[in-house]
Design brief:
This protein is α/β, with parallel strands linked by helices and about 550 residues long. Strands 2-1-3-4-5 form a five-stranded mixed β-sheet. It is elongated and about 115 Å long. The N and C termini lie close together (about 10 Å). α2 runs antiparallel to α24. β1, α3 and β2 form a beta-alpha-beta unit. Helix content is about 45%, strand content about 10%.
Length: about 550
């Protein structure tokens, strides 16, 4: 057979030899072309994402026109492909389904003053439409958010005073920022603030290898995007305090930035309490010091969760880009009698019970009647003799997990009334400079005392006596830095790889995991599959197979 093969090669007609050489060169060209595409990205798709405001959408369309003129592709300027307002996890899945995930050259995220975005969306009667695209999920049909979203033309003042981030603007921003900071990010993400975006047009062009002339923004349009913050137009106007932490993030982000795995991933700290213990002031102090924590107004649903419910909330929020790297938890506690009195005085008893309890008591029970009473008082709770907020169970759920070594993260138990004594130790625990803490955490915390009779106080002392004895054994500042396996974290919450028993599997999980693995070809073999399915490669492979078959027949 070897002799025959040699004879065939020696006696082969020049035309046949030329066909074999041409096929080999064609296959080599295919590999070179695809190799360059893998090395340089061979990518020409630029994603331009906004939070839904009309001004940001107009600026985005101008950028898209500039990219289109220079040979780049962009997402649809009228959002017919569902990419213009998508959060990071959603756009990954949309691109994967369309087979365009490996063609993304980069993304531009345009953010703006959240109040102005909300005003433009509300006045454009697009509230539900935008919220269904910017949010990771649609709210429950019985929730207050759903009622506002589905009401016809809700007034802007009503939407602002709802104290609900209906567009999930902060989660939307976090998902893209964390994606840009993630190690092995697929493509660079350019963050630009609309009010100063015209200043950075040339820098946006440089990121994509273009000149500033590609985006001819008229000077008259500069003032159009540089609009002052929304001012009150009527006495019913409410400050939307949900945007406080988001605006702080905008200030830290600056007007322009490019992220591609080259920034320190922000680490989150869970701040938990039963309420009525100065937790809001404490979270505000942490945020001022640059510590990312649970939301100050509990929009993430984590501020008052018992241990167990907290892990479930984290598991759900993971797919919207929140809390990828939870590294510690701080449990704020103090006198439970004062907490109950504070919540009753402010009329928050029932709302708080829905967060601190595993479940509300049965309808018709004495506890249920007290919780739902329109004029509930300390006397009614004291006479009932039951822990209507389940403060004892809430505290013990965290204490048991931390002291037994089953907590996912280190837990610090901090007494609210004496926390000012430990701000140096707190800074060491969080890894921040103590000088960054505001004055509010350096001075004794004071709050309004609840007036109650001596009989009511004694009844509550008997009710919460065992809990106060347990708290006394802890001291005012107690750290539990143990883990489930005694030597290291058995359940990792870092880097977006949190694994919880029974973790749901599905499309979003696969999309996010593929995004985290980067563009190294380790995302399930998609890069090699694309190489084989390339038309040039298919033609070369078919040609070589045809010639190989003819050669085999001649040898035989």
């Amino acid at each position: 057979r070897r002799q025959r093969a040699c004879m065939v090669c020696c006696t082969m007609r020049p035309s046949t030899m030329m066909m074999i050489v041409a096929a080999a060169l064609l296959a080599l060209l295919c590999v070179v072309v695809e190799g360059d595409a893998a090395a340089t990205g061979g990518r020409n798709l630029v994603l331009v994402v906004t939070q839904g405001g009309d001004s940001a959408n107009e600026f985005a369309r101008q950028l898209m026109q500039g990219f289109s003129r220079t040979g780049f592709e962009t997402n649809d300027p009228h959002d017919r492909d569902g990419l213009m307002h998508a959060w990071y996890g959603a756009e990954m899945e949309i691109l994967r389904r369309a087979g365009r995930l490996d063609t993304v050259r980069g993304a531009i995220y345009i953010y703006d003053d959240p109040s102005r975005v909300l005003r433009e969306v509300v006045e454009g009667d697009r509230l539900y439409d935008v919220a269904s695209r910017t949010g990771a999920s649609v709210p429950h049909i019985y929730s207050p958010s759903w009622r506002i979203l589905r009401s016809p033309s809700p007034p802007f003042g009503e939407v602002m005073c709802s104290m609900i981030d209906l567009l999930q603007t902060e989660a939307h921003f976090d998902s893209w920022q964390l994606a840009g900071c993630r190690k092995g990010a697929r493509f660079p993400i350019v963050f630009v603030q609309l009010s100063t975006a015209w200043r950075y047009v040339s820098r946006i062009a440089q990121v994509f290898g273009l000149t500033a002339g590609a985006f001819p923004l008229a000077a008259a349009q500069r003032d159009k995007y540089n609009v002052a913050e929304v001012e009150p137009e009527d006495p019913e106007y409410c400050m939307f305090e949900t945007f406080t932490s988001l605006n702080l993030k905008y200030e830290r982000a600056g007007g322009f930035g490019v992220l591609q795995g080259d920034c320190r991933l922000q680490e989150e700290v869970l701040v938990i309490s039963v309420g009525g213990e100065g937790t809001t002031t404490f979270i505000d102090a942490l945020n001022t010091a640059g510590v990312r924590s649970t939301h100050i107004w509990d929009t993430d649903g984590l501020k008052h969760r018992w241990y167990g419910a907290e892990t479930e909330v984290l598991r759900r929020h993971r797919y919207s880009g929140l809390f990828h790297n939870v590294r510690a938890a701080i449990y704020i506690w103090d006198d439970p009698i004062h907490a109950v009195g504070s919540l009753i005085r402010r009329g928050w008893l029932l709302d708080q019970a829905q967060k601190t309890r595993v479940a509300l008591p049965m309808r018709g029970s004495d506890e249920y009647d007290v919780l739902t009473h329109p004029n509930v008082s300390v006397t009614m709770v004291a006479e009932l003799g039951k822990d209507v907020l389940d403060i004892d169970g809430h505290f013990r759920s965290w204490y048991t997990a931390a002291s037994s070594g089953k907590s996912h993260v280190p837990v610090l138990f901090l007494r609210s009334s004496t926390r000012w004594k430990y701000y140096d130790e707190l800074a060491e625990f969080l890894g921040v400079d103590p000088a960054l803490f505001p004055e509010s955490i350096r001075v004794p915390h004071t709050s309004k005392a609840t007036v109650m009779s001596e009989g009511d106080r004694q009844a509550l002392e008997r009710l919460y006596g065992p809990l106060k004895d347990l708290q006394a054994t802890l001291g005012d500042f107690k750290k539990f830095a143990t883990y489930a396996n005694g030597g290291g974290p058995a359940t990792t919450m870092g880097g977006g790889a949190m694994q919880v028993e029974g973790e749901p599997r599905g499309v979003r999980r696969r999309a996010l995991l593929s995004a985290e693995q980067g563009a190294t070809g380790s995302d399930g073999g998609d890069g090699f599959a694309d190489l084989l399915l390339h038309p040039l490669c298919m033609l070369a492979a078919g040609f070589v197979g045809f010639l190989a078959g003819r050669l085999r027949r001649r040898v035989q």
